[in-house]
């Protein structure tokens, strides 16, 4: 199982490289996300919220409803999926971690977090998304602890596309 992660600017090439048939876009209002070539519109979910770790007036923060919708979409097919946000650093890496944890409920969260760090030195998963998924999956804080353990990623304007491979 493969989860591709990228910034918006590298979406088309990441979809082609991974062979994904499904795309999850995590974007703020006002940012367009055209469905990539070869992806059926029904296989492209766009969720709109800002990259926030707490509520901020005038902005949409990640909510439980976003998490439920994303996890349901990812669970509809266990084939390759591409997850992206604007920069490919925070929202998308958090959701890739979430999907990997959801698809492999018996796999250690810390192991998945370490695989995420190895795949992307810039990954800085959005802590609010991770906390919401941790709660939704009943992981009792283990997902948050695993992300805290890998620390903040290297500073970057935009992350490089990478693949988080799901071990069985």
From TrEMBL:
It comes from Hansschlegelia quercus. This is Protein tyrosine phosphatase. Residues 47-121 form the Tyrosine specific protein phosphatases domain. Signal peptide: none annotated. SUPFAM superfamilies: (Phosphotyrosine protein) phosphatases II (SSF52799). InterPro entries: Prot-tyrosine_phosphatase-like, PTP_cat, Tyr_Pase_AS, Tyr_Pase_dom. It comes from the Bacteria. Gene3D superfamilies: Protein tyrosine phosphatase superfamily. GO terms for molecular function: protein tyrosine phosphatase activity.
């Amino acid at each position: 199982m493969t989860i591709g992660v990228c910034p918006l600017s590298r979406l088309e090439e990441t979809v082609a490289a991974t062979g994904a048939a499904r795309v999850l876009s995590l974007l703020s209002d006002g940012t367009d996300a055209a469905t990539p070539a070869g992806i059926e519109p029904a296989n492209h979910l766009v969720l709109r919220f800002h990259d926030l770790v707490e509520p901020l007036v005038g902005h949409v923060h990640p909510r439980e409803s976003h998490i439920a919708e994303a996890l349901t979409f990812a669970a509809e097919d266990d084939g390759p999926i591409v997850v992206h946000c604007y920069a490919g650093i925070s929202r998308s890496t958090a959701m890739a971690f979430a999907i990997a944890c959801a698809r492999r409920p018996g796999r250690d969260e810390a192991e998945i977090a370490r695989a995420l760090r190895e795949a992307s030195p810039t990954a800085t998963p959005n802590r609010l998304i991770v906390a919401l998924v941790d709660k939704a999956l009943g992981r009792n804080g283990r997902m948050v602890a695993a992300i805290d353990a890998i620390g903040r990623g290297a500073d970057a304007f935009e992350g490089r596309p990478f693949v988080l491979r799901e071990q069985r």
